[in-house]
Design a protein that fits this description.
With 183 residues, the protein is of the alpha/beta class. It has one domain (3-182): Thiamin diphosphate (ThDP)-binding fold, Pyr/PP domains (Rossmann fold). The protein is 42% helix and 19% strand. The protein has helices at 3-11, 23-32, 47-57, 68-73, 76-84, 115-121, 133-142, 168-182, and strands spanning 16-19, 37-39, 62-67, 89-95, 98-99, 105-106, 127-130, 148-153. It has a six-stranded parallel sheet with strand order 2-1-3-4-8-7, sandwiched between helices. A two-stranded antiparallel sheet has the order 5-6. Helix 1 crosses helix 2 (23-32), helix 1 packs parallel to helix 7 (133-142) and helix 3 (47-57) runs parallel beside helix 5 (76-84). The longest helix is centred in the C-terminal third of the chain and has 15 residues, at 168-182.
Amino acid sequence: MRRSDIIQEIALRDWLIVANIGYPARELFAAADRPGNFYMLGSMGLASSIGLGLAVSQPQRVCAIDGDGSVLMNLGSLATIAHHAPDNFCLVIVDNKAYGSTGGQPTYTRGKTDIAAVACAAGNVNVIRVSTLDALARALDEHAGHAAVIVADAEPGNQDVPAVSLSPVEIKERFMAHVRKGQ
């Protein structure tokens, strides 16, 4: 699977989506820009934390798209997700075994670290590893009623897409207005 395919599958759902910094945000913007998307433009490692905060503060379904490298930078988020486990939250970790937005350097998941096992060890109950788009779609739909961490195995590489053309303020204001309408 490619990360862009994973993102397109997630974007088929009418959920609040928080996309990780760099290419994941760019790929989501190119695939399905809408007010319910929050594009991270400068905070590597925080998509999962921002997504969790959204999920505990309002009732809409939230999906955070994070990379293996970003999650490794903020491992504490996995324990916090396990502790709160809101029924409306899903974290999709795109495990491409590389820091895709900074040049493709290998992450530790290319070596000994199993990010799904780390999520389980942090206390997350619903941890699912998928390696096909069909399996991803099933996991997203089957776990839509409770907290889940989905580790999606992916090939390294970035889609050739332009940068997000919205300013951080525009992203924030548009997203906040959308969240308020949904409550």
